[in-house]
């Protein structure tokens, strides 16, 4: 693939999942692939897992990685076209991105949404400007609308833990949070599960938290969480803010937090969360510290997903 922004960039999702699992079994099997190559990891927003797993993945492939915290360490970038730069932005992406294209073989970039301007957020404007002007392959380290490395990791984790000869039932449930969060993890997980096609998938959320139609095509959506949890093999817990009433927090209802009591409705489901998580707001400590939690295994798998994506890009560019 040329760039990795969405499930639509991947022609064979099961093969990419298998590639990640192969790297998990043998992390250094392609240790020469990235020699004399460099990946630049640009962060306009904070990160722990994405940053470090990408660096470990690059190192496993023999590739150097350089992290650049754009907002804190570099010039403030302007992304709008044809703008008179008389504000706080010092450098235009049209000038900066081609320079980055000279320094690196691959660029990764993380940009969060404003949660104010829905149209701009959902055009994934920042990452598309970097693709347009850098001239080199770009990996999304989480964009305004999608988090593809996380979603690939999530499918890797389901694939490696589900041993039965039937389709797993996967439920993604909205959970409360203290602040407004993007919809990108939820959008992305739904997009990837549906593109993968190897699970029965249900989303449950309170009324008002409907995701954008294009990300939930063919998905069963229920507002009754108990009904949705019934028989689940996996419960993916995530908060997101409203899409229709854009960026708004419409509920803090603590009844939506997953507990061991609610877990009894499921098929002894494994519980997933992308992390970071607000304990006892978004997800109960009894679950996070209990035997059904996959969150550490899931976060560990971030390395193998990133390695599979970087290897694919190195092999095809
Ligand atoms: N899940 C995830 O993307 O974690 P970070 O924000 O720490 O990278």
Secondary-structure blueprint:
Elements: H1 13-25, E1 38-43, H2 49-60, E2 64-69, H3 70-73, E3 77-78, E4 91-92, H4 93-103, E5 106-110, H5 118-122, H6 125-134, E6 138-140, H7 148-161, E7 169-174, H8 184-196, E8 200-204, E9 220-222, H9 225-229, E10 234-238, H10 260-263, E11 270-272, H11 285-288, H12 295-300, H13 302-316
Parallel strand pairs: 1-2, 1-5, 3-4, 5-6, 7-8, 7-10, 8-9, 10-11
The structure holds phosphoric acid mono(formamide)ester.
Phosphoric acid mono(formamide)ester is lined by residues 47-50, 142, 150, 274-275.
Detailed description of the structure:
There is one protein chain. This protein is an alpha/beta fold and 317 residues long. The protein folds into 2 domains: 7-146 and 302-316, Aspartate/ornithine carbamoyltransferase (Rossmann fold, 3-Layer(aba) Sandwich), CATH 3.40.50.1370; 148-299, Aspartate/ornithine carbamoyltransferase (Rossmann fold), CATH 3.40.50.1370. The protein contains 13 helices and 11 strands. The protein has helices at residues 13-25, 49-60, 70-73, 93-103, 118-122, 125-134, 148-161, 184-196, 225-229, 260-263, 285-288, 295-300, 302-316, and strands at 38-43, 64-69, 77-78, 91-92, 106-110, 138-140, 169-174, 200-204, 220-222, 234-238, 270-272. The protein starts with 12 loop residues before the first helix and ends with a helix. The protein has a 5-stranded parallel β-sheet with strand order 9-8-7-10-11. It has a 4-stranded parallel β-sheet with strand order 2-1-5-6, sandwiched between helices. A two-stranded parallel ribbon has the order 3-4. Helix 2 links the parallel strand 1 (38-43) and strand 2. The structure holds phosphoric acid mono(formamide)ester. Phosphoric acid mono(formamide)ester (CP) binds at residues 47-50, 142, 150, 274-275.
């Amino acid at each position: 693939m040329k760039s990795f922004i969405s499930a639509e960039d991947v022609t064979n999702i099961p093969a990419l999942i298998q590639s990640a699992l192969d790297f998990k079994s043998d992390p250094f099997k392609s240790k020469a692939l990235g020699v004399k190559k460099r990946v630049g990891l640009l962060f306009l927003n904070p990160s722990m897992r994405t940053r470090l797993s990408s660096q470990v993945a690059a190192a496993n492939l023999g590739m150097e990685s350089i992290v650049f915290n754009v907002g804190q360490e570099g010039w403030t970038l302007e992304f709008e076209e044809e703008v008179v730069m008389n504000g706080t932005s010092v450098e235009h992406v049209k000038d900066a991105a081609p320079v980055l294209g000279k320094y690196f073989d691959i660029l990764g970039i993380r940009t969060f949404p404003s949660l104010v301007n829905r149209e701009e957020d959902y055009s994934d404007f920042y990452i598309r400007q970097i693709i347009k002007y850098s001239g080199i392959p770009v990996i999304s380290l989480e964009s305004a609308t999608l988090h593809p490395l996380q979603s690939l990791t999530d499918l890797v984790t389901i694939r490696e833990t589900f041993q039965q000869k039937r389709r797993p039932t996967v439920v993604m449930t909205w959970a409360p949070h203290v602040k407004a969060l993007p919809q990108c993890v939820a959008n992305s997980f739904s997009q990837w599960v549906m593109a993968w096609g190897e699970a029965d998938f249900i989303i449950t959320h309170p009324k008002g938290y409907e995701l954008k139609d294009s990300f939930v095509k063919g998905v069963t959506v229920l507002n009754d969480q108990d009904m949705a949890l019934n028989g689940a093999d996996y419960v993916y817990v995530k908060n997101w803010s409203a899409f229709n009433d854009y960026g708004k927090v419409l509920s803090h209802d603590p009844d939506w937090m997953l507990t061991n009591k609610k877990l009894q409705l499921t098929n002894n489901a494994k519980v997933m969360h992308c992390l970071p998580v607000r304990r006892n707001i978004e997800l109960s400590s009894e679950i996070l510290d209990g035997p059904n939690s996959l969150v550490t295994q899931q976060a560990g798998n971030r390395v193998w997903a990133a390695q599979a994506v970087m290897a694919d890009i190195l092999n095809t560019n």
